Amino acid sequence: MPICENAVPKSLALPMSSPEKVPKALTEKFTAITTLTDAFCAKHLNDEYQQLIQRVVGALARKRPSPLLKGREHVWAAAAVHAVGRANFLDDPSQTPHCRSKVIFEYFGIAEGTGQGKSKEIRDILAMGRLSPEWRLPSQLADNPMVWMLRVNGLMVNIRHAPIELQRLAFEKGLIPYVPAERVEEGQIISTWKT
User: Fold this and answer.
1) Rounded CA separation 7/114 (Å)
2) Domains of the chain: which residue ranges?
3) DSSP-derived 3-state class of residue 179
4) I want to staple 119 with a disulfide (CB 3.0 to 4.6 A). Which of 45, 59, 83, 127 is the partner?
């Protein structure tokens, strides 16, 4: 059975730890924003959030024209943290780590309305939704149903329920982060995208 396509963007094949490439004209702005977000992540979140937020700021810097050219760094920093947090249910107390929006906006010294508006702008620009695999934390990918939905011979299939051979083929093509049947056999769940 050939695999035609899946719902996961090809950009997920990139390792999360790769340094962000930004245009030279925006290097200073990128550095200023990520310095602020890194400090917030060190205090309230974790390295996984830090890397994903850097990816978001890098993606915004690469847009033509970049929205980062307008606005203050601390507003963009707060909005990037909030946008990533929203996509990953950061405000859910059952999640670890978790953080309320109010804490984010107070930390960066901006009004909640300003932060919410800029966060929405980021989510719109990057098509960032709660089930968007591209903007989910790697540790949460296994729980995201969109990661596992592939089009096989024109039909949408949850690859976790497909034969192991088809799972391996999807993994080799970089369409899924791991072979689900092999992880279940080994008793572990690890979200690492094949590069």
Assistant:
1) 32
2) 3-12+139-186, 16-130
3) coil
4) 83
